[in-house]
From TrEMBL:
Keywords for the protein's UniProt record, in alphabetical order: 4Fe-4S, Carbohydrate metabolism, Gluconate utilization, Iron, Iron-sulfur, Lyase, Metal-binding
PANTHER family, A to Z: D-XYLONATE DEHYDRATASE, PHOSPHOGLUCONATE DEHYDRATASE
Domain Dihydroxy-acid/6-phosphogluconate dehydratase N-terminal: 68-377
Species the sequence originates in: Comamonas guangdongensis
A Pfam family of this chain: ILV_EDD_C
Gene Ontology molecular function terms on file: phosphogluconate dehydratase activity
Protein's recorded name: Phosphogluconate dehydratase
Amino acid sequence: MKLHPIVEAVTRRIRERSSATRSAYLEQVDAMAARPPGAQSMGCANVAHAFAGLPGADRIRIVEQKAPNVAIVTAYNDVLSAHAPLARYPDILKDEARRQGATAQVAGGVPAMCDGVTQGAPGMELSLFSRDAIAQGTAIALSHDMFDAALLLGVCDKIVPGLLIGALHFGHLPMVFVPAGPMTSGVSNNDKAKVREQAAQGLVGRQELLAAESAAYHGEGTCTFYGTANSNQMLLEAMGLHVPGTAFINPGDAERELLTREAMRTVLEITKGQRFAPIGRVVDERCIVNAMVALLATGGSTNHLIHWVAVARAAGIVIDWNDFSELSGVVPLLARVYPNGSADVNQFQAAGGPGYVIAELLKAGLMHGDVLTVRNEGPQAFARIPRVEAGQLVWQDAGESGDLSVLRPADAPFSSTGGLKLLAGNLGRSVIKVSAVPEDRHVIEAPARVFDSQEALQQAFKAGELDRLCEENASGGVVCVVRWQGPRANGMPELHKLTPPLAVLQGRGYKVALVTDGRMSGASGKVPAAIHVSPEASAGGPLARVQDGDLVRLDATSGTLAVLVDEDEWSQRPAATMPQALRLANGQGFGRELFAGFRRHALSAEEGACTWL
């Protein structure tokens, strides 16, 4: 199928915009690739230190036989259910490397925090910046310079983007990502959300709420909603950086260990020259566009409008929200997975999963089919689904959708456009996840109620203030503006705890919206939320000028976000400053002091909130 003209035009624009930075990046990649392998060029003391802990046979393979040595960079900890299975992976991978005549070493571990644990807590203010700390940790692990390839073990929200950013700074090496898969299905996401809303209203207590949450999050594997973690996995499939079909196989399934071993075989095939696929060459502008398209087609996490901008920059590629918006206008929505529907990721996988989505997008000319991947067959390899026959992995074409309520073909989609929308106006630039919002809520116009923290909004809800505001004004609604939540203010925490109270207000028939320079979770859904507003309030952005009672219009149909105040009055209105008490509290305790430099140097959300540029 011929490439769609808009996909082609966006790709061309990105290529032209990135010409200088991409060329400089590839020059560095080529220079690194031209160097002799570390084990052959380093001093004897260096080599002896690197291999002192290895069995004698492995030392012989590396030093005398010059066999490939593969780095394992792991984000293992068992606080993250999705990462708990990774404890077993290094031994499996080392065993497979030896079977293939190679060696493997755990080069390093990187931090991995669970946003589900830290939501609404001080630790969430480290979350976004943990991505860049993970990138730095990946670089430290690979800086030993003793490796011919690398396997990257990680799954969740900031971990995959961080690993990928770090990996791209070693773009001369072949690399494959190795996930662990989702937990089996428990209490449905819809039922869990209902209990959360009941708890927000005081209708159930802590015991009932904890029981519901524990029934939803009940075992090893990723959470089963289509949030940032599972969006990561979809994007890696679309970019060709996994063993095909690896993303959503449960940790205990028969395929899982076989796929983990296949990751080692795959990266060794590249290392041994059976194909040319260093990660810096795999991740080009076409690969990045393929990831963007897959995100839009599945209604994925809004967090990736920050993270994949940063990933692209690590490869010398410059993308922005205009690119996402233009692609969203032509990419159809093929998936309904919670919060965009009632299905969880296990049902998504059973209906065809990433293989089906990629097959449909390639067939419709919405993905580049002529790109490098870690497999010989290119993107077509990722349009197939793995299964086990006689103890061996085989791949079969995805075929038809197994459930049209979850996955639909590109010529009969759930929506003709993607799940994300760019908003722009006199309040700045923002994004909204429209795929999860009912159509009658795509336009909200109501007076503003301004909050300086998410806690203040929750207190106003509990006190009945928001109900009264909705009842008293003619619009029958309220636009909650939560500011001082951007990267420079406090690290841009997710404000997922605001979803239940706002959903309750919407359920009572009020017209409610959220406007913030903070983030919402990839699991946030039905309440219209203009998020990532840039520039942020603490950087002099227009949210700092909004006052209680100002009429605000969020229009996801026309793509506008504006305060309806007389233009002269608006231009002369002074900007508020962050309250002194809040300024003093930000960055204090829970290790937040250590991230002061990150906050100080962070770019805007649309620039990826990068701290290293």
